[in-house]
Amino acid sequence: MRSLRSHCLSLLLASVALSSVGCLGFGGPLLPETDGGDDEASESDSGTGSETTEHPCGPTSGVVERVIDGDTMVLESGDRVRYILVNTPEITDGKNECWGSQASDYNSMQVLGRTVTIEYDQECRDQYGRLLGYVSVEDLEINRALLENGFACILHISPNGDSRLAEYQALENEAKTAEIGMWGACATVSCD
């Protein structure tokens, strides 16, 4: 009887010792490591869509809370983001340029309430403090889509956009030639 008690006690102690380090055969620790260290996992996105990773400029993803117009939006974090290389007709500050409402509606349809990714270029912010980026939802880059669908024209403020300028100019020219969007609907286009 004594050896049975001794054996049970040994098993119990071994079990307690193993559980305290989180290794009961369940494939790893029972609790996440919280050493407070600055490791790669603490900086990466968990895949929930609610967390963002950081770039020296700002967040690389976030949920869009509000669309200001066709080329500017606000993330839930409060960061305002202006799309690089594109300019849509204005509908703010008392302006109501041709195709501005359509551009804003298109932008809203693509990004509002959705998680976007932001790719930065050379300069992080414009003179108004807005983040400057190429914005994507899933596989759709919004900057490109605005040009392709005739909602925007090129606005190049170097050094941002230098590497994509020729490609984007071709997209704008194709939309103009085919009279897509504002190019076919408006008597005058604000960026002409």
Automatic annotation (TrEMBL):
Enzyme Commission code(s) on record: 3.1.-.-
SMART domains for this protein: SNc (SM00318)
Record-level Gene Ontology MF annotations: endonuclease activity; hydrolase activity
Gene3D superfamilies with a match to the protein in the record: 2.40.50.90
Top class in the EC scheme: hydrolase
Region (Disordered): 32-63
Signal peptide feature range: 1-19
PROSITE patterns: PROKAR_LIPOPROTEIN, TNASE_3
UniProt keywords, alphabetically: Endonuclease, Hydrolase, Nuclease, Signal
Stretches that traverse the bilayer: none
Keyword Hydrolase set for record: yes
Protein name per Swiss-Prot or TrEMBL: Endonuclease YncB
Organism: Enhygromyxa salina
